[in-house]
Specification:
By secondary structure, the chain is α+β, with helices and mostly antiparallel strands. It is 26% helix and 16% strand. It has helices at 40-55, 101-114, 156-161, 185-188, 194-200, 219-231, 235-244, 258-261, 281-284, 300-303, 358-372; strands spanning 10-11, 61-68, 71-82, 87-88, 94-96, 135-139, 145-149, 297-299, 306-307, 311-312, 328-331, 336-341, 346-352. A 7-stranded antiparallel beta sheet has the order 4-3-2-13-12-11-10.
């Protein structure tokens, strides 16, 4: 079933504050929770929740930012950014954003669409002809598959919607024999330049016919190469000029400076759930290109400023967490996330360094706690 993703650019300048910063430092005025229909008492449940998680050593720390009606009502840091080194979590702590990179790359790519340089219905082969030779895997018996030609070419629109047929390798939810031919997201980050990556993957089979099925995968990493080919710049250079600098996202980058790296949140060396080693790959080894799929770093103050290329709630019910139709969100595999509810005029961004299964737990708990604090 084809999942739908919105294509509506929204830039929400919301926050960069702590509870004690001066009003002059805020990009938006702050407000008391009660004045915008939120309960200060219930927001305190977020404090208690993360204190409990940190005391139990399930997560090193967290940052949570909440705005309603364009007013900052909650922005707090908890615990440690780097427990091994004794670095305390701050509201300007930087997180490895993983898939939350995608929403920023989507905005930057659509700037090119607005300029008439990247039509959404243009063919990927217009930029990288080798994608025209790709064949589509057809599952057979005993894990085998055959190949057939593409029934229609991959469109740029397919890259935005994850309907290109390009998968991630190494995912439990994409473990078919066809997807197994593909690199994982982590491996793809170190396959040379963006152009070298884009020229190497057409040798692999697509898992679905283009335009037919949502398949979360390396589509945005291919989009990196398209943007770089059109602009003649690195993806980071393009996003800096079109998104990050205009929105004053000073801590968002693909290439953190030494000073910024000292502010990056680190995960526990072992997963608290099973004791197995864990790490955040992009911190351990810098990616070889500015991959739009997973490679950016940024603070929660930066991340809460917009959303596009996101998942949208289409109907009431059928969800593990509260919300309304029209709410949109996106998360990162290392423990970051954001959601925006236009009906409630609510924007939330949160960051943890939790690359294991606990990241999914924090997504649900933060959303439950925030919605639980709405009083009107």
């Amino acid at each position: 079933m084809l999942k739908q993703f919105i294509v509506t650019a929204i830039a929400i300048a919301v926050l960069q504050t702590t509870a004690i910063q001066s009003a002059a430092a805020l990009p938006l005025p702050s407000a008391t929770p009660d004045s915008v229909g939120m309960s200060a008492q219930r927001l305190a449940n977020i404090d208690a929740f993360f204190k409990g998680e940190i005391d139990r050593q399930r997560v090193p720390g967290a940052v949570v930012a909440i705005a309603r009606n364009g007013k900052l009502v909650y922005f707090k840091a908890f615990g440690m950014a780097d427990a091994a080194k004794g670095v305390v979590m701050q509201t300007d702590t930087i997180f490895q954003l993983a898939s939350m990179t995608k929403i920023q790359a989507a905005v930057g790519a659509l700037v090119l669409t607005e300029q008439g340089k990247l039509p959404l219905q243009s063919k990927l082969t217009d930029y990288f002809p080798a994608f025209g030779t790709m064949q589509v895997g057809v599952p057979g018996i005993e894990g085998k598959f055959t190949l057939e030609p593409q029934k229609r070419p991959i469109l740029i629109h397919d890259l935005f919607r994850h309907t290109s047929g390009i998968p991630y390798g190494g995912r439990p939810d994409g473990s078919s024999a066809i997807a197994a031919e593909w690199p994982s997201g982590g491996a793809a980050q170190n396959m040379g330049t963006a152009a070298e990556f884009a020229n190497s993957v057409p040798k692999l089979p697509l898992v679905y016919q283009p335009g037919t099925v949502f398949e979360y995968g390396l589509s945005f990493d291919v989009l990196s190469a398209v943007v770089e080919k059109i602009t003649g710049k690195s993806l980071g250079g393009h996003l800096s000029g079109t998104v990050w600098t205009p929105l004053k996202m000073g801590d968002t980058t693909f290439r953190p400076t030494e000073a910024q790296m000292a502010r990056v949140a680190r995960a526990f060396p072992n997963n608290p759930l099973d004791g197995k080693p864990q790490s955040i790959l992009a911190i351990q080894r810098a990616p070889s290109f500015d991959c739009a799929g997973a490679c950016a770093f940024g603070s929660m103050a930066d991340c809460i400023r917009f959303g596009l290329g996101v998942a949208e709630r289409l109907q009431p019910g059928l969800a593990a967490v509260p919300g309304n139709p029209g709410e949109f969100s996106w998360n990162g595999a290392n423990g970051t996330g954001f959601f925006c509810n236009p009906k409630e005029q609510l924007v939330v961004a949160f960051g943890t360094a939790a690359p294991g299964e606990l990241r999914k737990y924090y997504r649900e708990q933060v959303q439950d706690l925030v919605y639980g604090a709405l009083s009107r």
